[in-house]
Amino acid sequence: MSLLTKEDGSAIKTRATLTHYSEKMLDVYLSMFSTGTWLTYAFYAFLTKPPALRESIGNFLEENLPIFVADRKWLMITVPFVIYGVMRYLQLMYEKHEGESPEKVLLTDKPLIITIGLWGAAVMAIIYLVGK
């Protein structure tokens, strides 16, 4: 651990490698990679071949909805969970200064745990309930 001096003159404990980067540069990197994270997931969700619909769901959709609605990319429904998760993590880093231990944040923050659980449930529902 090393001490890093903030702009207001106070010192905070941080990893030694972080002393080689300015705080502004780390903020730029964080912004860049957090945006890249959810955007990459959104591309994945949109470009992944949708699971084949169960026969009962497929028949209902074909009879009651236009074909373009029946062939939607169901994983796109999970993108808001990923965006919220990234935003929540950033909030914890900037407002509560909990970025030193990402594993601790992921295992102790209740809203983040709930979001991860809802995301996982949505993905499983899409794969196993909507898909064959």
Work out the number of β strands. Answer: 2
With helices defined by DSSP (H or I, 4 residues minimum), what is the helix count? 6
Average pLDDT metric: 79
Low-pLDDT runs of 5+ residues are: none
Helix content: 55-70%
**H and E order:** EEHHHHHH
State which percent range the strand residues make up.
5-15%
* Overall outline: elongated
Give the class from helix and strand content and strand pairing.
mainly alpha
| End-to-end distance | 51 Å
**Spatial sequence of strands, sheet with the most strands:** 1-2
As for the number of domains, it is: 1
- Cα-atom radius of gyration: 20 Å
Largest sheet, if any?
2 strands, antiparallel
In short:
By secondary structure, this protein is mainly alpha-helical.
SSE topology:
Layout: E1 2-5, E2 11-14, H1 23-47, H2 55-64, H3 67-70, H4 79-95, H5 102-108, H6 110-130
Antiparallel strand pairs: 1-2
